[in-house]
Amino acid sequence: MEVGVGGGRRHRELKARQVVATRSQPTKIVAIRVWVKLQIACRLPATTSSPLLCSTSRPSEEIMADQFDFLSHRRCVWVNGPIIVGAGPSGLAVAAGLKEHGVPSVILERADCIASLWQKRTYDRLKLHLPKQFCQLPKFPFPADYPEYPTKKQFIDYLESYASHFGINPIFNQAVQSARYDETSELWRVRTAGPATEVEYIGRWLVAATGENSEKVVPELDGLREFAGDVIHVCDYKSGENFAGKRVLVVGCGNSGMEISLDLCDHNAFPAMVVRDRAHVLPREVLGKSVYELAVVMMKWLPLWLVDKILLVLAWFVLGSTEKYGLRRPSVGPLQLKNTQGRTPVLDVGALAKVKSGDIKVVPGIKRFSAGKVELVDGQVLDIDSVILATGYRSNVPQWLQGCDFFSKDGFPKTPFPNGWKGECGLYAVGFTKKGLSGAASDAVRTAADIGRIWKEELKPAKRLFACHRRCISQN
Ligand SMILES: Cc1cc2nc3c(=O)[nH]c(=O)nc-3n(C[C@H](O)[C@H](O)[C@H](O)COP(=O)(O)OP(=O)(O)OC[C@H]3O[C@@H](n4cnc5c(N)ncnc54)[C@H](O)[C@@H]3O)c2cc1C
C-alpha cells in the first residue's frame, strides 16, 4: 500500500508543505524537517514504522520521539489517516471500525487513560443505566457472564479489552486546544498541549469524539462562596463513605442526583435533594423486563405519544404518584422530552423508596447560601454541611473546534440524529446523538465506513492518474 502516490493524497501532502512553510521561523525549521521526512515516508507503506507516518500500530512514545525537534517547543506530526479527538467509547469504536476498513488513525486523549469519564469522573456504585445489549460497541459483544446491567468496573474492563482486541493505542495527555480546517492545504490542523510541549497534528480527516459530558456544569448560585462547607461536583463524588452523619444538599434530580442521594442514605448521611424543575421518574424494570427495552420494542409499532402514555401508566402502577413527594411530572411525555430537549428520564434504582420514606428529603429551588446554611425559594432555611452539584455536563467542542458551523453553540451537531455524524471537509462527529452508547456505536459505524470508502478509492492511484491524463488528452 503506497502512500503519496495517489493523486489526491499526494496533492494534499504537497499542500501540507505550503501550510507549514507559512509558519514562524522556528516552526519553519520543524516544518522543513517534517516535509523532508514526508518525502521519504511517502515512498513507504503506511503500516511500516516510517519516521513520520503515525499509525495506531506504533506506540505513541515512539511516534513522539520521532517527531521531536530540538529547535522548537512545538512538534509537527503528519497523520496518515483520521485524527480522532477523545478516547472514550465513541473514539474507540470509530478507531476499531477504521481498522476493520484498513484505515490507520490516531486518537488524541487529554487524560492518561481510555474512557476517562468512566474511570475518573463517576461514582463507585454506578452500573450501566441501560441493559447491556444497548451499550455494547460494534463487533465486540459483552462477555456472556456479564449481568444485565454491568458495573462500572466491568464496563471499563470491557473497554480495555475492546482497545486491546483492536490494537488501539491512543496518544494520552494530549488535550486538543484547537482544530481548524486549512482551506489552502485542504487539511485539518489540530493543536494539542501536553505536559512538556505543544504538538500540531496535520491530517485529512477530523473525528470529534469528545462526548456530551466533557465539561462539568457549575451553576452560579447566590452566596455559594460564603458557604463554609465542602462543595463538589458530582464528577468528583466517589461514595457516601466520607459523608456519614453529614447533612448534604444534592443539587439536581437527574439519574446522578437521585442515585447519589440513595448512596448517601446507604452511608448514613442525611441528603436533601433540590428539585427545581419537573422530572420524569420511571421504574427501571416492570415485571423483570427493562422499561427501556419495552419502549424500544413498542416504538417499532406505535407512535411516540402512545408509547409515552403507556410508559406513564406503567410508572403509575409500579411507583404510584410521584407528585405528592415533590417530583412533579412534565406535561410532555418522557420520550418526547428526551427527543426534543435531550432530557433523560430518571430510571429509578431505589431512590424513590427513600424519598417516600423521608430518608431523602425533596426540597424546592435554592434562593441563596450563607455560612453553613441554604435558604430555599419557599423561605425554608436548612443547616447543611456539604453541597454536591449534580448539575450535569456539557460538550466542549465549541472551545476547540474553530471556523466551523457544523456544531451549534451548545456543542452538538446542528443536524439531528441520524444525520449529524458527517460535516464538511472531512469532519465527523461521533457520540453527540443524545442516545447514549447505542447512538455512538451507530455514528462510529457510519463514520468508519465513509472514510474507509474514500480511503479505498484513493488507493487506486495508477488508474486514477492514468485516467485523468487520458481525459486531458481527449479534451485537447
Ligand atoms: C454517570 C453516567 C452514566 C451513564 N450511563 C450510561 C449508560 O448506562 N448507557 C449509555 O448508553 N450511556 C450512558 N452514559 C452516557 C455516556 O456519556 C456514554 O455512555 C459514553 O461515555 C459516551 O462516550 P463518548 O466517548 O462519546 O464520551 P466520553 O466517554 O465522555 O469520552 C470522551 C473522551 O474525550 C476526551 N476529551 C474531551 N475533551 C478533549 C480534548 N479537548 N482533547 C482531548 N481529549 C478530550 C475525554 O477525556 C474523554 O476521555 C452515562 C453518562 C454518565 C455521566
TrEMBL record:
It catalyses: indole-3-pyruvate + NADPH + O2 + H(+) = (indol-3-yl)acetate + CO2 + NADP(+) + H2O. One of its GO terms (molecular function) is indole-3-pyruvate monooxygenase activity. Keywords: FAD, Flavoprotein, Monooxygenase, NADP, Oxidoreductase. Its EC number is 1.-.-.-. It comes from the Eukaryota. Its cofactor is FAD. Coiled coil: none annotated. InterPro entries: Auxin_biosynth/cation_transpt, FAD/NAD-bd_sf, Flavin_mOase-like, NAD(P)-bd_dom_sf. It holds the Pfam family FMO-like. One of its GO terms (biological process) is auxin biosynthetic process. Belongs to the FMO family. This is Flavin-containing monooxygenase.
